[in-house]
């Protein structure tokens, strides 16, 4: 397995653990934190999928369907979780944000800013 693919595989495995953990295993958190987790998880899946050089359209369609399937499975598996349309919408927003984040980071401007930041960090350490 390519090192480029490993972060995506890790993110997929992490998503399976998080999305299908029984309610009893989910830590207590303030209201809305689950939406932040959904958003961040799908953002991570999109970014790592694109870093793995998966093609955008198949990746987006796959994650789009995974968002729906995960909610359906949460409602049907014996994990005491519920189906929430808002979670699906939040997953899709994370997918869009991750795609845009990767596009920006891959752009010439994003690379220039990253190089400038790394140069500044190296100067501060020296």
TrEMBL record:
**VanZ-like domain: from which residue to which, for each copy?**
28-102
Keywords of this entry:
Membrane, Transmembrane, Transmembrane helix
Which residues span the membrane?
35-52, 59-77, 89-110
The UniProt entry, under Pfam families, shows: VanZ (PF04892)
Q: Record's InterPro entries?
A: VanZ-like (IPR006976)
This chain's protein is named VanZ like family protein
Organism lineage string: Bacteria, Bacillati, Actinomycetota, Actinomycetes, Pseudonocardiales
């Amino acid at each position: 397995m390519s090192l480029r693919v490993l972060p995506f595989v890790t993110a997929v495995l992490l998503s399976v653990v998080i999305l299908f953990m029984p309610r009893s295993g989910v830590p207590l958190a303030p209201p809305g934190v689950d939406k932040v987790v959904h958003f961040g998880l799908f953002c991570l899946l999109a970014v790592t999928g694109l870093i793995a050089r998966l093609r955008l359209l198949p990746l987006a369609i796959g994650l789009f369907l995974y968002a729906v399937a995960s909610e359906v499975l949460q409602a049907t598996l014996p994990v005491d979780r519920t189906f929430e349309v808002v979670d699906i919408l939040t997953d899709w927003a994370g997918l869009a944000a991750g795609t845009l984040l990767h596009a920006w980071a891959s752009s010439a401007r994003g690379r220039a800013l990253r190089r400038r930041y790394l140069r500044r960090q190296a100067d501060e350490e020296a």
